[in-house]
Amino acid sequence: MDPASIQITAEPIDGSRCKFVVSQPVHAAGVRRFASAAEAEGSPLAAAIFAIPGAEVGEVIVSGNLVTVVKRGVTPWTAVGKSVGQAIRAALASGAPPLAPKAEAPVATADDDALYEQVAQLFDEQVNPMVARHGGRVELIDVQDAVVMLRMMGGCQGCGMADVTLRQGIEAMLQQHVPAVKGIVDITDHTAGTNPYFAAAKK
User: Which of 72, 95, 171, 201 makes the best surface tag, with the fewest CB within 10 Å?
Assistant: First the structure.
């Protein structure tokens, strides 16, 4: 595959988080989360992103055609983004699987299953009635390692207030009602909404 044929759009969420929308599927089977370089061993795409100098990458989440990168370094996304794009293109163009098959999770999955049920109940009873007033809906995708993966639907997709809703509303509810949850990952493609709040990043 010609790396130049792979289109990637960078969508910075804030100084530490950025979503990369790839023109082809990266990982079709659910969500994969890598919280360290050690976890990324054997997965060329994730390993290459963790190895980017100066980025101090702390987390890589891959789902469908989205790659979300969380960094601790101060190097801006305008610089780091190009290296991430190169890593994604190289991994996909190599012909080898970009991610290693997911190992069977240890006993902790029972905890994630229990959290999933608690979070699903909270979404049904409180979160979705709240966002429904704005014509939106929040879909629970998965819970992995106590991190909630969600997608915003309807009026929330592409809404300029989506990140505010996510951070102040949903996150606050989870901290209050399901304190075991460690974080939230929004895998929504907000550029596909009726009013996308992230224009394509200009390089």
Answer: 95
Amino acid type, 109: T
Phi-psi region of 146 (alpha: psi -120 to 50; beta: other; left: phi over 0): left
Report CA 149 to chain centroid distance, whole Å.
Answer: 7
Is 0.85 surpassed by the pTM of this model? no
Tokens of 55: 């980025």
Q: How far apart are CA 110 and CA 126, in angstroms?
A: 24
- The tens digit of pLDDT for each residue in 153-184 reads 765 555 555 555 555 678 888 888 898 988 88
Strands 8-12 and 17-22: antiparallel
Name every residue whose Cβ is closer than 8 Å to that of residue 40 and which is 6 or more positions away in sequence: 34, 46, 47, 49, 50, 60
**Where do the domains of the chain lie, and which CATH numbers do they carry?**
3-93 (3.30.1370.70), 109-192 (3.30.300.130)
Cβ(121)–Cβ(68) under 8 Å? Answer: no
Measured from the Cβ of residue 158, the count of other Cβ atoms closer than 10 Å reads 18
Task: Report how far apart, in Å, the C-alpha atoms of 122 and of each of 54, 57, 127, 128, 197 are.
Answer: 39, 31, 6, 9, 27
H helix intervals, the chain: 44-50, 77-93, 109-122, 128-132, 162-164, 171-177
